């Protein structure tokens, strides 16, 4: 194999780093702030028709006002199950059922709870960074292997720089996302 054919799949590394960011965004969405958001229900699954189903597949989720989420459950038979899943989710929200509607009044967060949530957000961000650094390490390992297969010094350096650049960008994205999530949490 001529060493022109030795390539490091930067797209794959980039995709995997993006994956860490996507996972982080989902984790952030599940952190309840004082504002109502349809995404807070995303992590909650309801046993429906023999399988675990997200709430937004069982009804229409609306946010009519800053501290209220309303779910219009399509199948009346599922109302109690949806309500029970929310109660047991650990979100700390008490659903109020009103006919086919389940109202979720979002309580204001006290100072202590806000601080706790910013800490949790920071932990999520740290895990995302670890995942990104693992992808970086994998990329650098691929470059080392390619060196053994005859990749030129210049190419090694070029790939190493690219991998580092992808890593720096991804870490910066995580930091930015964390900062804005923490501001959102502390906002009264």
From TrEMBL:
<dbReference type="InterPro" id="IPR023584">
    <property type="entry name" value="Ribosome_recyc_fac_dom"/>
</dbReference>
<dbReference type="Pfam" id="PF01765">
    <property type="entry name" value="RRF"/>
</dbReference>
<dbReference type="GO" id="GO:0005829">
    <property type="term" value="C:cytosol"/>
</dbReference>
<protein>
    <recommendedName>
        <fullName>Ribosome-recycling factor</fullName>
    </recommendedName>
</protein>
<dbReference type="InterPro" id="IPR002661">
    <property type="entry name" value="Ribosome_recyc_fac"/>
</dbReference>
<dbReference type="GO" id="GO:0002184">
    <property type="term" value="P:cytoplasmic translational termination"/>
</dbReference>
<dbReference type="GO" id="GO:0043023">
    <property type="term" value="F:ribosomal large subunit binding"/>
</dbReference>
<dbReference type="InterPro" id="IPR036191">
    <property type="entry name" value="RRF_sf"/>
</dbReference>
<keyword id="KW-0648">Protein biosynthesis</keyword>
<keyword id="KW-0963">Cytoplasm</keyword>
<comment type="function">
    <text>Responsible for the release of ribosomes from messenger RNA at the termination of protein biosynthesis. May increase the efficiency of translation by recycling ribosomes from one round of translation to another.</text>
</comment>
<feature type="domain" description="Ribosome recycling factor">
    <location>
        <begin position="24"/>
        <end position="186"/>
    </location>
</feature>
<comment type="similarity">
    <text>Belongs to the RRF family.</text>
</comment>
């Amino acid at each position: 194999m001529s060493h022109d054919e030795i390539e490091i799949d930067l797209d794959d590394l980039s995709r995997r780093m993006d994956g860490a960011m996507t996972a982080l965004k989902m984790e952030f969405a599940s952190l309840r702030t004082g504002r109502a958001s349809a995404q807070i229900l995303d992590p909650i699954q309801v046993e429906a028709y023999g399988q675990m189903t997200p709430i937004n597949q069982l009804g229409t989720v609306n946010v009519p006002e800053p501290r209220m989420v309303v779910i219009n459950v399509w199948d009346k038979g599922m109302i109690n199950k949806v309500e029970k899943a929310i109660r047991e989710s650990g979100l700390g929200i008490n659903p109020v059922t009103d006919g086919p509607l389940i109202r979720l009044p979002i309580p204001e967060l006290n100072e202590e709870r806000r601080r706790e949530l910013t800490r949790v957000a920071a932990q999520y961000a740290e895990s995302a960074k670890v995942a990104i650094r693992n992808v970086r390490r994998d990329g650098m390992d691929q470059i080392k292997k390619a060196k053994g297969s005859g990749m030129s010094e210049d190419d090694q350096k070029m790939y190493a720089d690219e991998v580092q650049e992808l890593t720096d960008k991804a870490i910066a994205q995580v930091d930015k996302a964390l900062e804005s999530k923490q501001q959102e949490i502390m906002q009264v």
